[in-house]
């Protein structure tokens, strides 16, 4: 049974839009935890557009469930991760102009740099996941980097319908099977919502789904605790 990681970035986005102290993503994390979330995910971006350094530090202190820190592969973020020591780090691509993460890491182009960061983090007892495209080649490269986990990019699957969605689902399924055969723990995320997440959660061996935007959007209408509970029930 896949577990649920709740990404609370968009709570911080709303706060930063007005420059207020509310809504506080710390409060959101506590509510999500009470509602049954298995993990809290935050992305500390270089431009600090939503989550702030203060948020990461406080979450690490108060959460009773794991904290997954998404971050770009930079010396600044590595330093922060080593100081905060989250329960895990997910390395993601990051571009200033993008609205949200647009795809998986380019593993071939950045292999040496990524491997160095993976090694440093895991030598400091911080497990690492790599946000990648659902291809066998990416799974093999992740294994060669000695990463413990992968997060399969489900953005394309989430945007498609019909046969095209089925085709992308098959890519995710086969990548998951291949990754598990290599000894990698498999997560998935990006674009998943109340209509398409269950299919991904049913993939044999799928460990965790990281979901943010759809949960926070639904929470605006029904409240965060209900939104988390309904997603938890759906993928369980």
TrEMBL record:
Biological process GO terms, please? pyridoxine biosynthetic process
Where is the site described as Transition state stabilizer found in this chain?
A: 151
Which sites bind 1-deoxy-D-xylulose 5-phosphate?
9-10, 45, 50, 100
State the reactions this protein catalyses.
Answer: 3-amino-2-oxopropyl phosphate + 1-deoxy-D-xylulose 5-phosphate = pyridoxine 5'-phosphate + phosphate + 2 H2O + H(+)
Please identify the protein, giving its name as recorded: Pyridoxine 5'-phosphate synthase
Active-site positions on this chain: 43 (proton acceptor), 70 (proton acceptor), 190 (proton donor)
Q: What is its EC number?
A: 2.6.99.2
């Amino acid at each position: 049974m896949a577990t649920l990681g709740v990404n609370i970035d968009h709570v911080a986005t709303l706060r930063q839009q007005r420059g207020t102290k509310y809504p506080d993503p710390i409060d959101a994390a506590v509510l999500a935890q009470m509602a049954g979330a298995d993990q809290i995910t935050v992305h500390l971006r270089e431009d600090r557009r939503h989550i702030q350094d203060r948020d990461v530090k406080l979450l690490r202190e108060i959460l009773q469930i794991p904290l997954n820190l998404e971050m770009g592969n930079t010396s600044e973020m590595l330093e922060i991760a080593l100081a905060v020591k989250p329960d895990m780090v997910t390395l993601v691509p990051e571009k200033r102009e993008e609205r949200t993460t647009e795809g998986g890491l380019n593993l071939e182009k950045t292999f040496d740099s990524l491997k160095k960061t993976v090694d440093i983090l895991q030598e400091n007892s911080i497990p690492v996941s790599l946000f990648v495209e659902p291809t066998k080649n990416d799974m093999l490269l992740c294994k060669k980097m000695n990463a413990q986990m992968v997060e399969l990019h489900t953005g394309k699957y989430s945007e498609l319908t019909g046969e095209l969605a089925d085709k992308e689902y098959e890519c995710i399924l086969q990548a998951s099977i291949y990754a598990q055969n290599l000894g990698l723990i498999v997560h998935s995320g990006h674009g998943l919502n109340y209509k398409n997440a269950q299919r991904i959660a049913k993939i044999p061996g799928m460990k965790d789904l990281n979901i943010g935007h759809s949960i926070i959007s639904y929470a605006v209408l029904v409240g965060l605790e209900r939104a988390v509970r309904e997603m938890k029930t759906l993928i369980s």
